[in-house]
Amino acid sequence: MKLFDGKKVANKILKEIALEVKKAKTKPCLAVILVGDDEASKLYIKLKKAAAQKVGINFEEHLFSVKSKEAEVISRIKELNQNEKISGIIVQLPLPAVFNVDKIIAAIDPKKDVDGFHKENLKLLEKRKNGLLPVLPLVILTALDSAKKLISSKNVLALVNSEVFGQTLKAVLARDSFKVNYLVRSTCMVFGAEKELKNADILISVCGCPNMIKGESIKEKAVLIDAGVTRYHDGRVTGDIDQESVKNKAVFLTPVPGGVGPLTVALLLRNVYLASLAD
């Protein structure tokens, strides 16, 4: 089984970004909004900050307590929209339950939405027009490109955590002729999807359910994309796919850690650089 080296691919992309940023007249800048004290979110922001500094992209953190009002966060986003020095804006998810995620994302200027989930960017995606591509689907597409010699069919089964993400993933992968069938999970179980799993030449999982997928559940010579990351308080990181049990059956796997994670940061920063060109 071939393991995808996300760090190697990410480092190549980061080097390319650094060269482009060095030539730019003005430095791109990423503004990150964090609401609350989620430890995993703090770690993700720390990783993004370190990578941004490495390639020469300026980085701003805008921190709000869990007691902050939704209107305060939206007001800050509007300020950042008007700030010419800011190239890209992301809201670190998850937000506290009392916040309306869709409303807050909608407040971001689509041209600065470097995560790529603003409805206007998704409309451009559906129409096959240029826009900022959503980062995680783009990461998955990049990983699949690394597995192209092992892919026997472009039919994909994706286990996702929301209808919106399923539709977005389907639209991004369609650009490369992949045909995506997705199932939205309601629990961390695969009961009821056994037949689909067994028939999937390419299986993508984005559920955040540790070791949910075992070797006996998958097709022989399957290509596996594990984008479901669970991070524990002790620092351990686990994916949706049980790597040990699939290693003698699958032909390709994006491991957790070291697979999609590093690439997610790199492609986010590439979106920041691309957004800066539209300033």
Secondary structure layout plus pairing:
Elements: E1 2-3, H1 6-23, E2 29-35, H2 39-55, E3 58-64, H3 70-82, E4 88-91, H4 101-106, H5 119-126, H6 135-146, E5 155-160, H7 163-174, E6 179-184, H8 194-199, E7 202-206, E8 223-226, E9 230-231, E10 237-238, H9 243-246, E11 252-254, H10 260-277
Parallel strand pairs: 1-11, 2-3, 2-4, 5-6, 5-7, 7-8, 8-11
Antiparallel strand pairs: 9-10
Number of strands: 11
- Largest sheet, order of strands side by side? 1-11-8-7-5-6
CATH architecture of the largest domain: 3-Layer(aba) Sandwich
Give start-end ranges of low-pLDDT stretches. Answer: none
Look at the structure and give the CATH class of the largest domain. Answer: Alpha Beta
Stated plainly, the CATH topology of the largest domain is called Rossmann fold
pLDDT average, as an integer?
91
Proportion of helical residues: 40-55%
**Treating each run of at least 4 consecutive H or I residues as one helix, how many helices?**
10
What does this entry show, briefly?
It contains ten helices and eleven strands. The protein has 279 residues and is an alpha/beta fold.
